Amino acid sequence: MENQEKDIQELPHGSGGIYKMIGWLATNQTTVYIFTFMVFLAGLGIYKSLPKEQFPDIKVPQIYVQTIYFGTTPADIENVINKPIEKQLKTLSGVSVSNRTPCKMYR
Predict the structure, then answer these.
(1) Percent of the chain's residues with pLDDT above 90
(2) Cα separations (Å) of 58 from 8, 24, 98?
(3) Residue ranges of the domains in the chain?
């Protein structure tokens, strides 16, 4: 116990405003807790009053088409199925890019 008091006495003591403020905050912990809780409540109230939409209207300009034909090669699916679908999609207004990824699927 005496060693702890000796260690505390060896700490540097300042006379500036920051040292006085820290000393006051250390002695008035209840005030600090109340102030922190008040700031939290104010932030919570501001958050609740912010305008929000639960389901905003977002338009994603994408379409996803998946073609599956078991027992054929990816090249056949691309030539026989995917290319005619892409030709029809390109006739639509507003379609600018189309991507395809043929792959072999096993049943």
Answers:
(1) 20
(2) 61, 52, 21
(3) 12-49, 59-107
What would the DSSP string read from start to end of 35-96? HHHHHHHHHHHHHHHS---SS--------------TTS-HHHIIIIIIHHHHHHHHTSTT--
Contact in structure between 30 and 38 (CB atoms under 8 Å): no
> CA 71, 106, 68 angle in degrees (round to 5)?
60
Give me the sign of the Cα torsion angle 23, 28, 29, 31. Answer: negative
Give dist(CA 40, CA 59) in Å, integer: 36
Closest CA to 105 of 85, 86, 77, 64: 77
Q: Which two tokens stand for residue 68?
A: 């599956």
Question: 76-99 pLDDT, tens per residue?
Answer: 888 888 888 888 888 877 777 667
